[in-house]
Design a protein that fits this description.
The chain has 275 residues and is of the alpha/beta class. Helix content is 31%, strand content 28%. It has two domains: 128 residues, Rossmann fold; 129 residues, 2,3-Dihydroxybiphenyl 1,2-Dioxygenase, domain 1. The chain binds zinc ion.
Length: 275
């Protein structure tokens, strides 16, 4: 049987609240991990000693005190001093987002914010410890296109092709969606103009409710099926639980806008032979 992943959860610094740390410890146990909790007010040195002694795979640091900028890097440093720099350190708690790039630069692998789910944390640790066995869901590669709802592609085209001078790559009807789409190339990405050809289409509804404008952002993202599953496991609301076919021989799925501050994201995977 495979050995359980061992995680040390530690609270460096002086703050005296460990409810959050305990919740995380329990969540990781629920995901089948062995969790050792150091208790409150540990020094970076104590944490590193405990991690080495307990032979853990990962250290999770939680801080509410605001001292993460000094204490998290100190833990990484102490690990390196003791030839244990291969034990990855992740952090969470109350960490202002502007501190995250600094902490990553200092060798902390990842910071989880209050918006992160414990499922995301558990999945991340699993990937970190067993990169080969887990189905790694890579971040989306780029913006495939930006979808803009228009009343008439013919009328809208002039701005893009004449004023901006961008090339029109193709126009096609996607009957299943009740739309006609025009792809305009801009560098590595595209602008997708969407015109409704059926009164029941989502674009028709969008136009009558909000008028013309940006409708969605499409991200180029492989492994669509397992990606959707991984997102769903993290509690991300999806409009499409399984991929459907989109324009340009692509498989697509939409994420519900309530997952992303009101922005509708499309995941887009192009099949072999196209891009
Ligand atoms: Zn699209």
């Amino acid at each position: 049987m495979e050995q359980k992943i061992r995680v040390l959860i530690a609270k460096p610094g002086l703050d005296g609240h460990d409810r959050g740390a305990l919740v995380i410890a329990q969540a990781l146990r629920d995901h089948g991990m062995e969790v050792i909790y150091t208790g409150l007010r540990q020094s970076p040195l104590q944490i590193v000693q405990a991690a080495i002694q307990e032979d853990v795979d990962v250290i999770g640091l939680s801080s509410l005190s605001g001292a993460h900028r000094t204490l998290f890097p100190k833990v990484v440093e102490e690990l390196e001093k003791r030839n244990a720099g291969d034990i990855p350190v992740v952090g969470g708690g109350v960490i202002p987002s502007e501190d995250i790039p600094f902490l990553l630069e200092k060798g902390v692998r990842k910071i989880f914010t209050s918006g992160s789910s414990t499922v995301a944390l558990a999945q991340y640790i699993q990937r970190l410890v067993h990169p080969k066995e887990s189905t790694i869901i890579k971040p989306p590669e780029k913006i495939a296109h930006i979808g803009i709802a228009v009343h008439s592609i013919e009328h809208a085209l002039g701005f893009y092709t004449d004023v901006l001078g961008l090339p029109l790559e193709g126009v096609e009807e996607v009957k299943s969606e009740g739309v006609k789409v025009a792809f305009i190339r801009i560098g590595e990405t595209r602008i997708e103009l969407l015109e409704s050809i059926e009164d029941t289409s989502a674009i028709h509804q969008f136009l009558s409710k909000k008028g013309e404008g940006i409708h969605h952002i499409a991200l180029e993202a492989g492994d669509l099926e397992s990606r959707l599953k991984a997102y769903r496991d993290q509690g991300v609301p999806l409009i499409n639980e399984t991929p459907k076919s989109g324009a340009n021989n692509s498989s697509i799925a939409f994420i519900h806008p309530k997952a992303a501050n009101g922005v509708l994201f499309e995941l887009c995977q192009h099949t072999e032979g196209t891009e």
